[in-house]
Amino acid sequence: MVKIAFNSALAQKALGKEVPVAVKDPELASAPSGNEGSTGRCLLTLLGIAFILSGLIVGGACLYRYFAPKRLYHGVMQFNTSVGSKGESQPYYLPQVEEEVEISDNTAVISVPPPRFRPGDPAYILHDFNRKLTAYLDLTLRTCFVIPLNTSVVLPPQDLIDLFSQLASGSYRSYLMHEDLVVTERIDDIRPLGFYIRRLCDRKETYRMQPRSSLPGGGIQKRSAEECFTIQHFENTFVTETKICKA
């Protein structure tokens, strides 16, 4: 009789083929938890990328305010000192106002140089059409004065561009209007006035104004004790002489 015997090692190897993969390879058995860790890392990476992109967008908006292309215009306007004399005969020589305006991002900044041969202060005038505010920076006093934007006097940005384009083609004769403003109170916190006025009036005394005609009695009783100065400028087809008085 012939006996058939199996090698124990071969038998164990054969039986090993039936062992589940998870039991044979501990690393493969733990694969699902590794996938969950990879997913978490991907989410953190995406959140980091989103945070960086948002920072770039905000930073780009801030840089745009400083480096966006600005349109600078120069203009000269002659005027008759008699109110409403636009269509009347005019003398041979007329006084004139010369200024530059920079228009960008729905604002207009007007640079008024010292007038020649007549009284008046050099100034920067900023019109913020978004916030409906106007700020006068008197360069002699180094003081800011803020008032609501007078849309009946100040042309909107595109109309201002059209006006200065006409002034560039030749002389322009017009008339003089008077604006009488009175200082009412000091502004201690200029941050609510917006980015542009805050930049113009930073570290300068800033006051709020209103038209004299809106004060009770027109403020006539205080005229003798007031300190007043004038700024001649134009943001329309006529020249405006703004008189600002501090009580």
UniProtKB/TrEMBL annotation:
Molecular function per GO: amyloid-beta binding
Subcellular location, record wording: Membrane
Domain BRICHOS: residue ranges: 117-209
Keywords on record: Cell membrane, Disulfide bond, Glycoprotein, Membrane, Signal-anchor, Transmembrane, Transmembrane helix
Domain of life: Eukaryota
A biological process from GO: negative regulation of amyloid precursor protein biosynthetic process
Record field: transmembrane: 43-67
PANTHER family assigned to the protein according to its UniProt record, in alphabetical order: INTEGRAL MEMBRANE PROTEIN 2A, INTEGRAL TRANSMEMBRANE PROTEIN 2
Family the UniProt entry places it in: Belongs to the ITM2 family.
Record's protein name: Integral membrane protein 2
Gene (name only): itm2a
